Amino acid sequence: MSVSINPVPPRGNRLLGKLPDEEYERLLPKLQEVSFSLGEVVYEFGGHLDYVFFPTTAIVSLLYTMENGTSAEMGLTGNDGVVGIALFMGGGTMPNRAVVQSAGRALRMKAKVLQDEFAMGGKFQHWLLRYTQALITQISQTAVCNRLHSVEEQLCRWLLLSHDRVPSDELIMTQELIADMLGVRREGVTVAAGRLQDVGAISYVRGHIKILDRQKLEETVCECYRVVKNEFDRLLG
Amino acid sequence: MSVSINPVPPRGNRLLGKLPDEEYERLLPKLQEVSFSLGEVVYEFGGHLDYVFFPTTAIVSLLYTMENGTSAEMGLTGNDGVVGIALFMGGGTMPNRAVVQSAGRALRMKAKVLQDEFAMGGKFQHWLLRYTQALITQISQTAVCNRLHSVEEQLCRWLLLSHDRVPSDELIMTQELIADMLGVRREGVTVAAGRLQDVGAISYVRGHIKILDRQKLEETVCECYRVVKNEFDRLLG
DNA sequence: GGCCGTCTGTGCGCTGGAGCACATATGTGC
DNA sequence: GCACATATGTGCTCCAGCGCACAGACGGCC
């Protein structure tokens, strides 16, 4: 993670973008822009966090890793959210693991500052809680999707959720890592991705996925994607 | 749902039990005791809720039902929590479905009262948020468990989580309903429950499950149970 | 250009759980 | 105590996804 000096961050994060001007102006000096690289661990399970992060172009996955090493994603946060909700929810330590899924930037804020602002009970608190509510929906839907839907449907969900959170049509991510996210075998991702390539929805070359035809992905995806998207739009749109 | 007149509720709910005496005394007149019967729907997906509920002896499951009718549980709430978190998180409508999994009582509070109390930012808010954080862990773990663990392991998790939230060793629940909760086939539950009976962990007769040997269940359950339990104890213990 | 590490594609056999069919057991009401 | 609805037990077949093995294919580096 690298920290910029004298940052002039745009309102690249939707949560911060919701704030009234005065509140935003007050918070601005307390935000620092940082860069995350692919695969960087934002925090570990049970870890302490000194900052919360408001991604602007980065995407961060929330993962849980089992004792035997297998893992699965429970949610992902981009420019529509915040990483480190336990800091204002009161947990202190993090109940999961956060890994940068797509390199990019974020704005960070000291935990103490966040907590003080949160305690003031203004719009900031309001939007942080609404985001948390949306995240709960995302995690819930992941739970249900894991139980009931095929790898191909879930891959589509994952691609669409990620695509919604990056500015380009290209995702940098190997099939191996996607498999870890989805909690499935790498080969399973290969065949599912192969089918999506066959119908021209994506192209996949050594860790570079191009979204060629979103429409096709949306036809293949399970309802979970739309439920999550609708809820985010409703709560934060 | 039946409402008691002139209730004299004990601090049967751990969340309310956390409150300082003065805060509890103030809230007491605003609480009404209600009875829930097995299978009763507390709220539907997308529905509006006029009250939040603090279970004392009832258990309520949070479910999501797919378009094709299949469903799965994402979490459950007993005397350690509150049903209707969307009311203070800001969602308004409920992103899931809540069904009474074990008949019993709860204390209800008008949504408006809850929201006003919450906005005051005192201990009540504090504990509601900590509970929500614990619930997020539970939902997350359900997501991972759905992906990675066997029906038998999940059945054990479900039995233990339920057992922790009722005063007796008997659970009233058919295999059919458990199957809906876990998002698996009824026959799958029959087989798994059969194995647990064979080793003497439970006995199962027409909707009446007796927990005979918790120890055995804890040996069979996946790590998910302990993770969730630890997090609830840590946050609310 | 050649080497090597990483990433992707493919082909097994195996297994857990789905879907279906049906046999049996246990309440409940008449 | 009989009839019937409900709950549970059991035995198939089928298939998605796992685990494993290995064959390309691409890309960076010397």
Helix and strand topology:
Two copies of one chain form a homodimer.
Chain A (H helix, E strand, L loop, with lengths): L1 E2 L10 H4 L3 H7 L4 E5 L4 E3 L7 E5 L3 E7 L5 E7 L8 H4 L7 E6 L1 E7 H9 L3 H26 L2 H13 L6 E3 L2 H8 L3 H13 L3 E4 L2 E4 L2 H7 L2 H14 L1
Antiparallel strand pairs in A: 1-2, 2-8, 3-7, 4-8, 5-6, 5-7, 9-11, 10-11
Chain A binds a DNA duplex (30 and 30 nucleotides) through helix 8.
Q: Which structural traits does this protein have?
A:
homodimer, alpha+beta, four-stranded antiparallel sheet, 22% strand, DNA-binding
What does this structure look like?
2 copies of one chain form a homodimer. The first copy, chain A, is of the alpha+beta class and 237 residues long. In chain A, 44% of the residues lie in helices and 22% in strands. Chain A has 10 helices and 11 strands. Chain A has helices at residues 14-17, 21-27, 86-89, 111-119, 123-148, 151-163, 175-182, 186-198, 214-220, 223-236; strands at 2-3, 32-36, 41-43, 51-55, 59-65, 71-77, 97-102, 104-110, 170-172, 202-205, 208-211. In chain A, the strands form 3 sheets. In chain A, strands 1-2-8-4 form a 4-stranded antiparallel β-sheet. A 4-stranded antiparallel β-sheet of chain A has the order 3-7-5-6. A 3-stranded antiparallel β-sheet of chain A has the order 9-11-10. In chain A, helix 7 packs across helix 8 (186-198). The longest helix of chain A has 26 residues, at 123-148. The first copy, chain A, is globular and about 50 Å long. The first copy, chain A, starts with a strand and ends with a helix. The interface between A and B is large, with 42 and 42 residues. The structure holds a DNA duplex (30 and 30 nucleotides).
